[in-house]
Amino acid sequence: MSDVKTALLVLFALMHIKSLPGVYTVRSLYYFVQPRSLLYYVKPGYRPQPRVGLLGTKRYHSRVWFDDLDLNIHLNNSSYNKMMDFARIDLCTSLFPSWQHLHKFDIMLAQTVLLFKAEVPRFSKYTITSRIFTWDDKWIWIQHRFSIKRKVKPVRKTPLEMVDDAAVQRGHAAADKISESLEDEEDDLIMEEEDEDDIDPIEARAPQGSSSINNDDNNNNSSSRNVGSSSTQASHVPSSSRGNVNGAASLDVPDKLCCIAYSRMVFKTPKGKTIKPAALFEKMGHKEAYPGEWEQYRELGMSLVESMMKIEGHSAEATPASRRLVAPTRAKI
């Protein structure tokens, strides 16, 4: 009987392994004790280069486990903040690889704002895409986008799609005809519509040729968008190159946005003096792709943050106006 109890306890611990004592600390320290960190002690004066561009993104992947579930059997609210901690550390150690070893500055978290859009279902994989959103002379805002894969029914082939592959390869006309037939059969594709908020505001409003869009850590094309446009493209390729089975066409479907979060942070010296973000960026080895790139990106992000948080004309620390409570009147019977 004792063996059964032990097995059950071990199984229960494994189901909640992310919440066991000390696991959070070990996961956080992992980013500072990686093998490349030993170079600081082996090579005097070693200064690593940033692994992510200043305007790039960093993706953190995770999955909803038993200890992440709430009463509604989906990702609970506290897990969003906990996973944002790891995503922030991952981003900051990639942007500023000498941050913790040189100990010339500290990164302090001042505020987090979460805007929920959809649930993250139980046991599903999700991705946190983090990046620097904007900054001023004191604060820096980091954006986190929680997303999951969309559920899509396969597109069944129409009669026009069942053209011989040789005919398709003879020219673009046949391929265009097949693409048009797919567009006509809208009922065959059942996909959740993309909300307006799902579209990245920086990407949608950035000028053509901006390097802030494709400056990703792993350069994968999870979704193909036109810069300056809110429409998402799903290219239809000839059936010979689709690699599908049972007549199902593969489409490049954008991820579903579940939550947008913002972290407001500040850089401090060990003595508590505030460091201006722009000065720190240059000191850490970041450079502009063209003159004015950072300022253009910063102004666009700041306008969106001010609009979202409604802080135009007021400081972020401003206290709300005092309200005079009025005693309720009693109805006369």
From TrEMBL:
Annotated signal sequence range: 1-19
Annotated spans, Disordered: 193-247
Gene3D superfamilies: Hotdog Thioesterase
Entry similarity comment: Belongs to the lcsJ thioesterase family.
Protein name: Uncharacterized protein
Species, as recorded: Mortierella alpina (Oleaginous fungus)
Bias type Polar residues, positions: 232-244
Chain intervals with Low complexity compositional bias: 210-231
Lineage: superkingdom: Eukaryota
Entries under Pfam families matching the protein: 4HBT_2 (PF13279)
